[in-house]
């Protein structure tokens, strides 16, 4: 394996794990607790904004009650 691949694989594994956890949490979350109000918007953010999408979901998606 080239040197670059050895660096990319752990990043991809972490990104995939974060996306899975974020999507499962979003599925279980009540829609009234979400800031943007629609789960579809958060699905797009989680899936298409690399590693920052899931991190942003965990930090910003839920309202503090």
Task: Write a structural description.
It is found in: Cell membrane. InterPro entries: CLS_N (IPR027379). It is a multi-pass membrane protein. Residues 17-60 form the Cardiolipin synthase N-terminal domain. By secondary structure, the chain is mostly helical. The chain has a domain at 1-36. It is built from three helices and no strands. The N and C termini lie far apart (49 Å).
Instruction: Round the mean pLDDT to the nearest integer and report it.
Output: 89
What value does the Rg take, in angstroms? 14 Å
Helix coverage percent of residues? 55-70%
| Helix-and-strand structural type | mainly alpha
General shape: elongated
User: Which spans have pLDDT < 50 for at least 5 consecutive residues?
Assistant: none
What is the strand content?
A: under 5%
Beginning-to-end CA distance, first to last residue: 49 Å
- Give the number of helices: 3
- Give the H and E element order: HHH
Count of individual beta strands: 0
Question: What multimeric state do the chains show?
Answer: single chain
Give a quick account of the main beta sheet: strands, pairing sense, barrel closure: none
């Amino acid at each position: 394996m080239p040197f670059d691949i050895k660096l990319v694989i752990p990043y991809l594994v972490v990104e995939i794990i974060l996306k899975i956890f974020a999507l499962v949490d979003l599925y279980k979350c009540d829609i009234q607790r979400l800031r943007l109000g629609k789960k579809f918007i958060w699905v797009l953010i989680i899936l298409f904004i690399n590693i920052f999408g899931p991190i942003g979901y965990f930090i910003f998606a839920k309202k503090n009650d």
